[in-house]
Amino acid sequence: MENPNEIATNELCYHCGELLDNVRYRLDNHDFCCAGCKGVYKILSENNLCNYYSYNDTPGERIQNNSHYEYLEEPSIITQLLAYQHEKASIVTFYIPAIHCSSCIWLLEHLYKINNSIFSSRIDFLKRQVTISFKHEEISLRKLVETLADIGYEPLISLQDVVKENSKSINKTLVQKIAVAGFLTGNVMLFSFPEYFGLNGFEAQFQKLFGWLNLAFCIPAAFYCGKDYFTSAITSLKHKQINLDTPLALIIAVLFLRTAFDIIFAAGPGFADTLTGLVFLLLMGKWVKQRTYHHISFDRDYRSYFPIAVTKLQNAKETPIPIENVAIGDRLWIRNGEIVPADAILMKGDAWMDMSFVTGESESIHKVLGEIIYAGGRQTAEAIEIEVIKPVSQSYLTGLWNNENYKANSKKQNFNDSVAKYFSLGVFIIAFSATTYWLLKSDTQKAWAAFTAVIIVACPCVLSLSTPFTLSAILSIFDKKGFYVKNTDAIEAFAACDSIIFDKTGTLTTADNSELLFIGFLDYHEQMLVASLVRNSAHPLSQQILSNLSCANYLPVSNYTEIPGKGISGAIHNRKLYLGNASILPETLKNIHNNGVHIIIDEYYKGCFQIRQQWREGLPELLNKLAKNYKLHVLSGDTDREYSTLKTLFPRNSKINFKRNPHQKLEYVLQEQQKNNKVIMLGDGLNDAGALKQSDFGIAITDNINNFTPGCDAILTGKNIGLLPNFAALSRDGLKVVKISFAIAILYNCIGIYYAVQGTLYPLIAAVLMPISTITIISFTSIATHLFARKNKL
Amino acid sequence: MNILYFLVGCSVLMAIIFLAAFFWASKTGQHDDVYTPGVRILFDDEDKSDEHHISKKSTS
C-alpha cells in the first residue's frame, strides 16, 4: 500500500513539494526543484534542523526573489520596527506570510540553532507572526531578516504593518466586561432563587441581605459593563438621532432605578437578575459581532503596498531612507523589481514600468528620459535614477485615499438602527398610556410600576442579539468558502445592492493560469536550444517557457547574458540565441510590435511566445446568473482589444468601459450611486482602490489571500468567484431571518406587556421571559441560517 | 443559621478570586494565542545533550 505514495513523493521537491522537472538538484538522496530549495535544505541540515521535514511532507515554500535589506541598517527604521530594546537584547515582531504548518512553528522556534545570538522566537500561528528576541550587538536586524529569508521565511515589512497596533485593546476590555457581567449574573441569580421559591418566616431575615447584595451587584453591571450603551446613546441623541443603543440605555437605567427603589424602600425584590442578565447577553451579542480575521486586513492602503524604505542617491552614495522622509528633489535609485514610491521624473536609465497594479494595463510601459513616472509602477528593467517631484502622500495614486468623497456616506444605517426609532416610539406610547390610565384611577404606585415594567419588558435585547448571531453565522459560512467579509454591517450592505461593476484585469481574468501561445515554428533541436537558454533565467516568463517546452536534456550555454526586463542571450554550439521583448530586436524587424517573448536564432526570426490572459473559470454561467438580479458593468483600465470577447460574455444591456484611470473609476461609481443604484465593485488592484472604497460593497479578488489587496469590505478568493450569486442570495436570506426573529421577539414582548400594563409584572416573569425569548431567537437564527445556506448550496 | 452570613461572604469572595484570576490571565496575554501552544506541545523532545550545548554557548 505504501508504494504508490512513495513513488508520488519521489517526483516532488523534498522541500517545497513542487513537481520536479527534468533538471534536478540532489543532496543527501533528496531531490530539489531549484537551487533555492536545496540551499534551504543545506542550511537546515548543517544546523541539525532536519526535523523540519519529519512533521510534514514538503513543508517549505519556493523562495521567490532576493530583496534588498540595506534599509534595515538605518537607525530610524530600526527603532520603528523594534518592539522593545534594552542594553543587551532587542525584541522584534515580524509578520511572515509563509507560515502555514506545524513545521513552520517548529523551525521558527528553533532559530537559536541557526544563529545563537538569537535568544528565543515565539510564533503566533493564527496571526502569522513571530516574535524574536536577539542580541543586537552580535546580530543586526538586517542579518536577522536575511537569516529568515535564507530559510524561506521572508518577513513582510511594510509601513502599515509597522503602524499596526490597534483594535486589540478594545477587544480585551470587552472580554473583561463580559467576564464581570457573567460573574454578576451568576451571583445575582443565586441570591434571587430563594425569593422566587418562597421564603419561610425564618429565612425571611435573609431577604434584606440578598436584596442589598443584588443592588450592590447591579452597580457595576449598569455603570461598568453597560457604560458603552450610555455613552453611545448620549452621542446619538446629541446628533438628534436614535440608534439601537438609545432604548437599551434607557432600559438599563430604568431597571437600575426600579431595582434601587424597590430594595431601598423594601417595596419588592427588584429586577436585579433581569438587569445583569440583559447586560451579559448584550455584551455577548457584541462579542459575536466582533469577528477578527488575524491574517486578513481590510484597511490596507498604499502604505502596505509601498516599501518601507528607498535608496536615495546623495553625493554619488546610496543611502536607504524611510519612505516618509522622501522629499521633493531627492534622487532615488530604483532597482529591477522595486516600486516607485512617489511621482518622479526619469533622470537616468531605461524604464520599463509595470503599471498593472495602478492602471490595470497589463503590458509594461516604456518611459524615456525626462518623462514622469507615476508612483506605484514597478520597474522591470535595469536600475534607474529618478527625481521626486511630489511627496509620497500627495502622489497621483495616493491621492485616491485623500479623496473627499469617501467621508460623505461612510455611516450607513443598518436595519437595527432604523427599526430602533419606531420601536422606541411604540414603547413610549404604551408606557405613557398605561401610566396615564393608572394615574386617572389615582393609583400612583401602580402607575410607577406599570411605567417601569413596560419599558423593562419591551426590551429590544432580542433585536440586538438576532442581528449579530444571524449575520455572524453567515460570515462563518462565507469564510469556509473563501469569502471573507469585513463585518456584519457589510453583509446588510451586500444584500441591498442592485448593480455590479467588474474590473477586467485580475478580476475577470486570472494572472496565474495564463496560457502560453507560440506563434511560429521551432523544430525539436531548436526547442532544446531555447530550453537550455531559458533554464538560466529566474524570470517568471522564462520559467513558464521552460515548463512549456519540457525537454529531456540540456546543452551547455556560453556567453549567457541577461538584460533585466528585456531578454536573455547566449550561444550554444556556436549558434547565437536571443530571447526577449520587442526592444532587443534588430533594426530589420522593427515592424514587429506585438508583445511577448521573441526568439531569434542565428539572426533568423523564429516566432514569439505570447501570454494570453485567461478568463476565470465558469465566467459565462456566473454572469448569466448575476444578470437576473443585477445590472452589470465593466470598468477596465486596459485597452479595448478584448472588447469583442467581453461583448459575448456579458448580457446585452451591460455597459463596458475601457481605458478608465483610477480616478475615473471612482467617478463612475459615484455617478451610479447618484442614480440611486447600490453598487458592488469587484476589483483587485490599487487602480480599483478608490472605486472599491466608494462603492456600497467593495470586493477585492485575490488568488492568494496573503497577497496585497486594496482596502475593501470583503475579500474573495478567485477560484470561488462562481459562488457570488449564492453569497448574495444567502445574505438576502439572512436579512429575512433577522426580520422574522424580530417578529418573534415582538410576540414575546406582547405577553410581557400584557402583565406590565396591569402593573402586576412580577420580577420572576421578566427574569424567565428574557432568557426564553433569547434562547428561542438564537436557536431559530442558527437553524434558519443553516437551512438557507443549504438551500443556496453553500 | 447565622452561619449562612459567613457562607454567603465566602461564596462571593471565591467568585471574586476567580474573576481576578481571569483578569490576570487576560492581562498577561494568556488568551492572545490559543492555537499555537496546542501544536507546540506535540513536538518531540530534542536531543538533550545537543540543546544543552547550544544554550551554554549562547549564555557564555
Keywords:
heterodimer; A: 794 residues; alpha+beta; Alpha-Beta Plaits; Calcium-transporting ATPase, cytoplasmic transduction domain A; 7-stranded mixed sheet; 6-stranded antiparallel sheet; 29 helices; elongated; B: 60 residues; mainly alpha; 3 helices; 70% helix; 0% strand
Describe the protein in words.
The complex is a heterodimer of chains A (794) and B (60). With 794 residues, chain A is of the alpha+beta class. Chain A is built from 29 helices and 28 strands. Among the domains of chain A are: 2-44, no CATH class; 70-149, Alpha-Beta Plaits (2-Layer Sandwich), CATH 3.30.70; 302-397, Calcium-transporting ATPase, cytoplasmic transduction domain A; 479-510 and 616-732, Rossmann fold (3-Layer(aba) Sandwich); 513-614, Calcium-transporting ATPase, cytoplasmic domain N. In chain A, strand 5 (118-124) and strand 6 form a beta hairpin. In chain A, helix 9 (168-197) packs antiparallel against helix 13, helix 13 runs parallel beside helix 20 and helix 18 packs antiparallel against helix 19. Chain B is mostly helical and 60 residues long. Chain B has one domain. Chain B is built from three helices and no strands. The relative contact order of chain B is 0.06.
- What is the end-to-end distance of chain B? 66 Å
Count of helical regions of chain B: 3
CATH hierarchy, class of the domain at 479-510 and 616-732 in chain A: Alpha Beta
Rg from Cα of chain A: 33 Å
Q: What is the CATH superfamily of the domain at 479-510 and 616-732 in chain A? A: HAD superfamily/HAD-like
What is the number of beta strands of chain B? 0
Sheet with most strands of chain B? none
Helical percent range of chain B?
Answer: over 70%
Query: What fold name goes in the CATH topology slot of the domain at 479-510 and 616-732 in chain A?
Result: Rossmann fold
